[in-house]
């Protein structure tokens, strides 16, 4: 009998960085995808507020609520009982009073069953990160392209293209490390800058569109398996299968067979004992047959 997988923890993650062992993370939003990700051997699962775009049909992450995040985090936790799970703090849930921020964290941990929370931002949220960590909750930072502030930063632009921006990113990363974050996501950051930041930090960096020099990588479940319609290719994503086309084709074949009355076939039906039909109609059986 195979040994039960032990979830990764923040001490092991730091050791993985020291040993130059890449960390794998998948963003998932529900029970079946989390179960499959765990069975595939992923190190961590992120319940991202990108669920707004991917599974809720919004055009950004901004409409995603704390209730949404709790619901989806709890679903993922049921599917991946032996995997370290990080849940996103959604838009504007950690920029007000610290009491309000901690209430959101508490809900994600107690109701959503997450092991850690993720916050977007750098030096400007360092005090909030420090307080959450002091409360005993692991925090994953997130800098570079931060989707919650995409309107402020001018759209989905690659970060770290010039010296000034690179310096800002490094300062943000160091501020998060000093505040107690256990790792930092670098999103859409130039490879050179992401690699330099990874060398400077003692905590792991998890890249998405940030090149080959990070300590780990994260991709969205639906991107990995191309589960969308229409699927929009992204330069920083590698798709490993085309599940969307397979799903569409399968449902189309089902519709076709129902219309043709070829489904259900003999092997899909159940038969009753002799006399059951007669017992339903009684003396009317002959009339029905006629």
UniProtKB/TrEMBL annotation:
Q: Name one Pfam family in it.
A: Pantoate_transf
* Required cofactor names: Mg(2+)
Is Metal-binding one of the keywords? yes
Keyword Magnesium on entry: yes
Keywords assigned: Cytoplasm, Magnesium, Metal-binding, Pantothenate biosynthesis, Transferase
The record, for Gene3D superfamilies, names:
Phosphoenolpyruvate-binding domains
Q: In which pathway does it act?
A: Cofactor biosynthesis; (R)-pantothenate biosynthesis; (R)-pantoate from 3-methyl-2-oxobutanoate: step 1/2
Transmembrane annotation, as ranges: none
> Which GO molecular function terms does the record list?
3-methyl-2-oxobutanoate hydroxymethyltransferase activity
> Where is the protein situated, by its record's location annotation?
Cytoplasm
Binding-site positions, Mg(2+): 49, 88, 120
- Write out the catalytic residues in the record: 187
Signal sequence range: none
Give the quaternary structure.
Homodecamer; pentamer of dimers.
Q: What is this protein called?
A: 3-methyl-2-oxobutanoate hydroxymethyltransferase
Gene for this chain: panB
